[in-house]
Amino acid sequence: MQENIYPSDFKIKQKDRLKGMNQRPVLLWFTGLSGSGKSTLANGTEVALHRLGFKTYLLDGDNMRCGLNSDLKFSHEDRVENIRRIAEVSRLMMDAGLIVIAAFITPFEKDRKMIQATVGVDNYLEIFVDCPLEVCEQRDVKGLYEKARKGLIKDFTGINSPYELPLKPFMRIKSDEEKTSSSVLKIVKALENKINL
């Protein structure tokens, strides 16, 4: 705890906010290479949950860097700070009772462990969007792999910076083999026992 900082003890607690919501807040963390389909799956999952009446919020890498994290660059230290902030925002949203859906490359296991420690082990559901590098490069909708291959982007995950495979994800989606709609259905079904109060 920093000196001279005294967090307030709010009268309304998470249990009070959850009354009538009929859901348990969790963090669905989609991790995988750029172009693996994280954002597509995260969006599809949020739509499916919304249709079922769940209260959700989606956090996505590029969106966060346009606002809250616009001051951060792409150094290793800034990337770690980017993820730390997302974890803290997720924790606050979960305290409000929301199911948080996040789509971030998050290549290092220690950073994923940090997220887990921030929101709680039982609240962190990691979804590994597993897609071969060559398929991600073929998709390359943002042109990032091409720039990385030309040396225009340093420390790009999958090219000149590693992606550490998740050790025990809640779910593994092979996005090069499955249709998005099928994957979303599989995710939502697996969540039923986790998010229903």
CATH class identity = Alpha Beta
Radius of gyration: 17 Å
* Largest sheet: number of strands, sense, barrel closure: 5 strands, parallel
**What is the count of DSSP helices, taking H or I runs of 4+ residues?**
8
Total domain units = 1
Helix content: 40-55%
User: What is the global morphology?
Assistant: globular
CATH topology: Rossmann fold
Strand order of the largest sheet: 2-3-1-4-5
Q: What is the H/E string?
A: HEHEHHEHEHHEH
Structural class based on helices, strands and sheet pairing: alpha/beta
Q: How far is the N terminus from the C terminus?
A: 33 Å
Please mark out the parts with pLDDT under 50 across 5 or more consecutive residues, or reply none: none
β-strand percent reads 5-15%
CATH homologous superfamily heading: P-loop containing nucleotide triphosphate hydrolases
Mean pLDDT level = 91
Question: Architecture, CATH level 2?
Answer: 3-Layer(aba) Sandwich
Explain what you see.
The protein is an alpha/beta fold. The chain has a single domain, classed as 3-Layer(aba) Sandwich (Rossmann fold). 43% of the residues lie in helices and 13% in strands. Strands 2-3-1-4-5 form a five-stranded parallel β-sheet, sandwiched between helices. Helix 2 packs across helix 8 and helix 4 runs parallel beside helix 5. The longest helix is centred in the middle third of the chain and has 20 residues. 31% of the residues are buried. The mean pLDDT is 91.
